[in-house]
Amino acid sequence: MYDELLGAAARLDMLRRLEGGGVAPHATAAMHALRFAATILWPAVPNTPPPGYRHDSERLLQLAANWREAALELGEFAPPPPVLRLVTDTAPPS
Predict the structure, then answer these.
(1) What was the pLDDT predicted at 55?
(2) Considering Cα of 71, then 75, then 79, then 84, what sign does the dihedral take?
(3) Rounded CA gap, 67 and 61, in Å?
(4) What is the DSSP string of 19-52?
């Protein structure tokens, strides 16, 4: 299972790259989800080398929290509040 997660993450890493240096956001999110799963699973699998990427689980948990905030538009990802304008009646008094 661990090797399959790493293999799928590696394939997504190749597929996510777009022309012009961009990356596909959905493929990138899926790749990070697979890497997160492999990082969590790695200590439980005996005699396996560490993943070939930065595998700090604290950092990955923070990334997951950031993704949640971005998806829900919370914290620094919250949209700016609406601009309030004073509206006055411009009609002449009758």
Answers:
(1) 66
(2) positive
(3) 10
(4) GGG-B-HHHHHHHHHHHHHHHHHGGGSTT-PPPS
Where exactly are the structural domains of the chain?
Answer: 2-77
Q: How far is Cα 41 from Cα 15, in angstroms, rounded to an integer? A: 24
Q: Is the pTM of this model over 0.70?
A: no
At 64, the amino acid letter reads A
> Distance of alpha carbon 35 from its chain centroid, rounded?
12
Tell me the C-alpha distance between 15 and 32, whole Å.
Answer: 13
> Which residues are CB-contacts of 9 (< 8 A; sequence separation ≥ 6)?
31, 34, 35, 38
| Per-residue pLDDT tens digits for 8-65 | 989 888 888 887 877 887 888 888 888 888 888 888 888 888 887 776 777 778 877 8
Cβ contact 39:60 at 8 Å: yes
Q: What is the model's pLDDT at position 31?
A: 87
